[in-house]
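Re: the request from the purification team.
They wanted to know what the chain is likely to look like in 3D before they choose a buffer screen. I agreed to run a prediction and write the result into the notebook, where they can find it.
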Amino acid sequence: MADRYQQFTQSPIGREVVKRLGLPAPTPLRRHRPGDPVVAGPVLVGSAPDSRLGDAIATITEDVRAEVHHTPVEGQRYAALIFDATGISTSAQLRELHEFFGPTIRQTDRGGRVIVLGTPPEAHPDPRTSTAQRALEGFVRTAGKELKRGATAQLVHVAEGAENALDSTLRFLLSAKSAYVSGQVIRIGPAEVAEVDWERPLRDKIALVTGASRGIGEAIAETLARDGAHVVCLDVPAQGGDLAEVANRIGGTTLQLDITADDAADRIAEHFAQRHDGLDIVVHNAGITRDKTIGRMTQQQWDAVLAVNLTAQERINELLLAELPKSPLRPGGRIVGVASISGIAGNVGQANYAASKAGVIGHVRSTAGIAADRGATINAVAPGFIETRMTAAVPLFVREAGRRMNSMSQGGQPVDVAETIAWFANPASAGVNGNVVRVCGQSLLGA
C-alpha cells in the first residue's frame, strides 16, 4: 500500500508544511539493485588505540572498492563512518567515540551508515572493560535516532578470533540491503568462513521457505533465488495456486503441506532427502494471527497461533538438528526464524501472537549452541511495521502510528526482511549465530 503521507512530504507544498509544523519527514530509502556497489561514496575509518580490527576493515573496504579516508575532509559527505572501538577498556576511554564522531557525524550523507565495532562485553573477565564495551550500545542506539535522512547506526561485537568472520556482516551493513535495519547489536563468533561469489552467494544451495505464497514469504523466496538458491516454496494446500505462481516465477518448486501436522517434519525430511539430496537453508516464515484481548480470546485462537508460529518450528528444527542421516540439513546449514517486534514489546490484542514470537526468539537463543555443534547456525529476524496486505487492513490511525514511530518515520518493505535473511543464509555468515535482528527502522517500541 502506498504511503501517501511520505509522497506528500516529497512535494514542494509538503516540504513547506512539514518544515513549518515540525512534522516527520521520511527520507526515501535507497534499496539494493543488482549491480549496485556495496557502498556508494567515501568511507571514513577510525579506531581507538590498541584496537584489533584494522586489518579486517582494510581488507573488506578494499574488496568492495570503497574510497577510504582516515582523516576527515572538510565539507566531504561520507557514505559510511566506521569506528573500531575494540581497544576501549575503560569508561574514560569512551571519549574516543566523541573525538571521532563529534566532528564528523554531521558529515554522514543521506542514507549513510554509522558502524561501531566492539568486543562482546560478556567475553571480558575485567569488569571495567566489560562495562566500557557495554556502553557502546547506548551510544549507537542514540546515534541511530539522531542521524535522520535515512541513515542507520549499528554495533557489531566481534569476538576475539572472529576477525576473519566479519566480511559478510560489514558488507550487509554498509550496503543498501540493510536500509530498514538500524540501532541493532550483532554478535559474531569465531568460525571457518567459506569463500563465496558475492554476486551469487547461494549458488547450488537448496532452500526451504515456509509461508511462501505471498507477502514477506514471497519476498524471501525471490531474494534467495536472486542470490542463486533453488527455493522450495511451502504453504498450505489452500494457497496452492499462489504458491505455484511464486515458484514458477523464481524457478523454484513447491511443497504443499500443513506444518502443524504430526508428520510434517518427517515429510519435509523425506522430501529433501529424496528430491534434493539434502537441504541448506530453512526459513520459518509461516505465521498466523488470531487477535483478541486476553479475556476474550478462545482456546482455539490461542492454540492455533502457537501451533503454527512456534511449535511447528520447534518440531522441524529438532529433526533438522538431529544427527545425520536422520536430518536432511547439510553441514553449514542455515536456519532462520521470523519473530516480530510484538514478541519484544508486546501488543494489545496479540497475547497469543506475542507469546509465539517471543518463543521464536527464545528458541533461537537456546538452540544456537546445538546448531553450532552441528556446524550450522540459527538466527531470527524481528520485523516491525512492514507494508503488506495485512498491515494495509489495519485501521488508519494505528497504521500511521506504526509507520511514523521509528527513526525512519516510515514502514519497511518485505524485501527489507528478505535481505536480512539472505545475509543470515550466506555461507560467509558462519560466525553469525544466535542473533535476533530487528528489521523495524529502529522502532520506538521495545528495546
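For the purification team: The first helix runs from residue 4 to 9.
Please add any questions underneath this entry.
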